[in-house]
Specification:
With 348 residues, the protein is mostly helical. The chain has 3 domains: 54 residues, Orthogonal Bundle (434 Repressor (Amino-terminal Domain)); 183 residues, no CATH class; 70 residues, no CATH class. It contains 17 helices and 3 strands. Strands 1-3-2 form a 3-stranded mixed sheet. Strand 2 and strand 3 form a beta hairpin. The chain is elongated and about 70 Å long. It starts with a helix and ends in a 17-residue tail after the last helix. One of its GO terms (molecular function) is DNA binding. Belongs to the short-chain fatty acyl-CoA assimilation regulator (ScfR) family. This is HTH cro/C1-type domain-containing protein. It comes from Kibdelosporangium phytohabitans.
């Protein structure tokens, strides 16, 4: 788990501690026991306390088959396992917090664990349960966190191929986001992952059918056909399309493709829109009005504050988990606000 957290392969660790990859495999499988010196070297190179290895980790083991990843071809097994290792460790944080405070009960508005067959209908059921009769579905992350779904950003994940992924963890689903993409694209990613959690209780990572269904769910949740169809500008005007996209909290590209799905825009029209967006640089860096930072996960930060007020301060939580305080802060998205000390050599 410590090796996966830093994105290393077994041979990377073996080289760092001057052992063979076979020896590392034997340590990890419990077939042989590393010496105290070897364990200390592992802790040093993987940036964890030696006691990290005494906690029986991972307490919750996730593999690729238990998570919704959009593409298996675009990511390596090492990259996926690094992301999953962060979620495994996050589950330990949640488990510790749950001993001190009561996290929100899981209730996304419709029963989970049932493989819903109609993505559009399921999205409309969620909107009804959330009281969103018409208009944009505001504050997706806040709604999900209030309804017991943990939403987090995975730190230190250097992989452009992963926007987001999700997994249902022992009754506590987690939607993990990266820091990739603009806020509107991230909103679609959150809706997409919620679609997976509702439509696909049994993950099939990389399944094209699952991905299409999750996209249909997200599109209907964020851009309901019954009201968006008549608002799409015809003929196409990029400025008007951008304004409508902003009002619904989606990217202009997502709205253009929605127009195609609803048969308002032809394939050739969408190609022209995409060409314009590419020329403007909006395919990767679409401007966001008023510098909107996007929907930020808050549940874990608030839970940490409440736990601290009830006897479980952040250093104590880090000690229970046998991880360093900086790693814990990074994992739960806390910014280190301490001033940075720099020693400067004086002249002479």
């Amino acid at each position: 788990m410590a090796r996966e957290l830093v994105g290393w392969r077994k041979r990377d660790l073996a080289e760092a501690i001057d052992r063979t990859a076979a020896a590392v495999s034997q340590y990890e499988l419990g077939q042989s026991r590393p010496s105290a010196e070897t364990l200390s070297r592992c802790a040093d190179v993987l940036d964890v306390p030696p006691s990290f290895f005494t906690a029986g980790r991972p307490q919750l083991h996730l593999d690729t088959a238990q998570a919704h990843f959009r593409s298996l071809r675009a990511t390596t097994a090492t990259q996926r396992q690094q992301a999953l290792a962060h979620v495994e460790l996050l589950w330990e944080v949640i488990e510790q917090l749950d001993r001190v405070i009561e996290l929100p009960a899981l209730d996304v508005g419709v029963p989970m664990g049932i493989p819903y067959s109609d993505p559009g209908l399921t999205a409309r059921m969620v909107r009804t349960a959330w009281g969103v009769a018409i208009g944009p579905a505001a504050h997706l992350v806040r709604n999900l966190e209030a309804r017991g779904v943990v939403t987090t950003r995975i730190p230190m994940l250097d992989n452009d191929a992963i926007d987001a992924f999700s997994s249902a963890l022992s009754g506590r689903p987690v939607i993990a986001l990266t820091y990739k993409g603009n806020p509107m694209r991230q909103r679609f990613s959150v809706a997409h992952e919620l679609g997976h959690l509702l439509l696909h209780p049994e993950p099939e990572p990389g399944s094209l059918r699952h991905e299409r269904e999750a996209n249909v769910f997200a599109a209907e949740l964020l851009m309901p056909a019954a009201e968006i169809r008549d608002q799409l500008p015809t003929p196409v005007d990029i400025g008007a399309l951008k304004d409508l996209a902003d009002s619904y909290g989606v990217s202009t590209a997502a709205l253009a493709y929605r127009g195609k799905d609803l048969q308002i825009y032809s394939e050739s029209t969408v190609r022209r829109i995409m060409a314009t967006l590419t020329r403007l640089g909006w395919r990767t860096h679409e401007p966001v009005n008023s510098g909107y930072p996007g929907e930020q996960p808050e549940l874990l930060r608030l839970a940490i504050d409440l736990a601290a007020a009830n006897g479980l301060a952040l250093p104590s939580l880090a000690a229970r988990l046998h991880i360093g305080l900086p790693r814990l802060r990074s994992l739960i998205g806390l910014t280190d606000t301490r001033p940075r000390l720099r020693l400067i050599h004086g002249a002479g």
